[in-house]
Structure formats: structure tokens, C-alpha cells
Amino acid sequence: AGAKGRMGSLIARMVVEDPELKLVGVTELKERFSPGEVFAEGVRFCTGLKEMEEKPQVVVDFTTPAGTMS
């Protein structure tokens, strides 16, 4: 979560680069990405977990406290 932010994008890139991990999606506020925008190959931006085609086993939340509660 928070994949357009400095730390969120860094963490997501580290997951993409690790062959033992699989990034299934990234979330961000709808105002911060364009419809259909892709973060990495096969990984698109979503506004929430329900939009992801594959459900994650782990969620790393690097948003603000208000974003975490929404």
C-alpha cells in the first residue's frame, strides 16, 4: 500500500527484484494513478485488495495512518 510514495515504491521494487517473492499488486489512492497504470510487468495499481486479480498472502502498508484506516 502506498506504492507511489518514496518508501512504498522502494519496498515494492525490492519485492519485484527478489526471485523468492511475487508482487501480486500495489495499492494507491485513486487520485495518484491513471486507470490501467502498471507498476511493474504484470502488476497494476489498484485502490484496494478487492481489485487485485490474485489475493496476497502478505500486505505491507506504507501509507499514512489515515490511509491505513480507510
Describe this structure in words.
The chain has helices at residues 6-17, 65-69; strands spanning 26-27, 38-40, 43-46. The mean pLDDT is 88. A hairpin with a 2-residue loop joins strand 2 (38-40) and strand 3 (43-46). By secondary structure, it is of the alpha+beta class.
Specify Rg, calculated over alpha carbons.
11 Å
How would you classify the helix and strand content by structural class? alpha+beta
Number of helices: 2
Give me the strand/helix succession.
HEEEH
Largest β sheet strand count, sense and barrel closure? 3 strands, mixed
Shape: globular
Percent of residues in β-strands: 5-15%
Spans of 5+ residues with little confidence (pLDDT < 50)?
none
Mean pLDDT: 88
Distance from first to last alpha carbon: 11 Å
Helix proportion of residues, in percent? Answer: 10-25%
In total, the number of strands is: 3
Main sheet: which strands, in order across?
A: 1-3-2
Give the gist of this structure.
This protein has about 70 residues and is α+β, with helices and mostly antiparallel strands. The protein has 2 helices and 3 strands, in the order αβββα.
Set out the fold topology.
Blueprint (H helix, E strand, L loop, with lengths): L5 H12 L8 E2 L10 E3 L2 E4 L18 H5 L1
Features:
single chain, 70 residues, alpha+beta, three-stranded mixed β-sheet, 2 helices
